[in-house]
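can u do me a favor
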């Protein structure tokens, strides 16, 4: 089976210049790059900066790209991009060569779509507990992104879990289905927000903790109330071990 028709292609050239001398190549619009993979020898290449940016914008780090080198095609994932600390230009790119018959574990970005009536009409606040989801799949089956439909959140306290997401059957999720992806929380006051920020927490922490604290207080009150007809529990003495 061939997969070439499904992937974007990026024509690259072999690179003989290494070390500090690659600066001249960057000025010429070429990005120094490496192709590597498990059990494979690294290949030094140069990538046209303009074409790479176009491909990366569409493919991201989760879609297979075919690198074309001397008429040979290498299916790869864009693994790592190093930027210049000041100029913000791309300094180097690493491509991970994949085997099409070998499953990979990758983190897929979550795309939050739709409109929550709880946010629109009830002044709820959307708390995103996850921004990406780790999955395992064959390279040809790796999704570019996973959509999270927040229109399902209509009431304060409702949540969307991993098990609620629409995951392709040939993709295995690597986390529990009970993990919370997003929650519609009650809007906190300005005073609560300021207090949490002063304590080093963020606004989202306040929203989540507000509901958790209510549950904790209810549990503590129930545990403190003695059962009907039961004798008061005697306080145990603590003995330190010497």
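np, heres the sequence
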């Amino acid at each position: 089976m061939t997969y070439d028709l499904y992937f974007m292609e990026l024509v690259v050239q072999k690179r003989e210049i290494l070390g500090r001398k690659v600066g001249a190549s960057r000025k010429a619009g070429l990005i120094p790059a490496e192709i590597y993979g498990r059990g494979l020898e690294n290949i030094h290449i140069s990538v046209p900066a303009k074409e790479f940016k176009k491909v990366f914008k569409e493919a991201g780090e989760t879609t297979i790209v075919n690198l074309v080198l001397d008429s040979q095609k290498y299916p790869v994932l864009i693994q790592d991009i190093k930027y210049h600390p000041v100029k913000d230009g791309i300094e180097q790119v690493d491509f991970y060569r994949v085997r099409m018959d070998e499953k990979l574990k990758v983190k897929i970005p979550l795309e939050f779509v739709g409109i929550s009536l709880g946010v629109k009409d009830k002044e709820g606040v959307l708390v995103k507990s996850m921004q990406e989801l780790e999955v395992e799949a064959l390279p040809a089956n790796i999704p570019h992104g996973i959509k999270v439909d927040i229109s399902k959140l209509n009431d304060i306290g409702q949540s969307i879990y991993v098990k609620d997401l629409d995951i392709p059957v040939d993709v295995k999720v690597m986390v529990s289905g009970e993990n919370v992806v997003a929650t519609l929380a009650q809007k906190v006051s300005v005073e609560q927000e300021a207090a949490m920020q002063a304590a080093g927490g963020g606004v989202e922490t306040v929203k989540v903790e507000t509901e958790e604290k209510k549950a904790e207080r209810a549990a503590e009150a129930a545990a403190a109330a003695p059962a009907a007809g039961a004798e008061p529990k005697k306080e145990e003495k603590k003995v330190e071990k010497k």
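The domain at 103-186 is CATH 2.170.120.20 (RNA Polymerase Alpha Subunit; Chain A, domain 2). hope that helps!!
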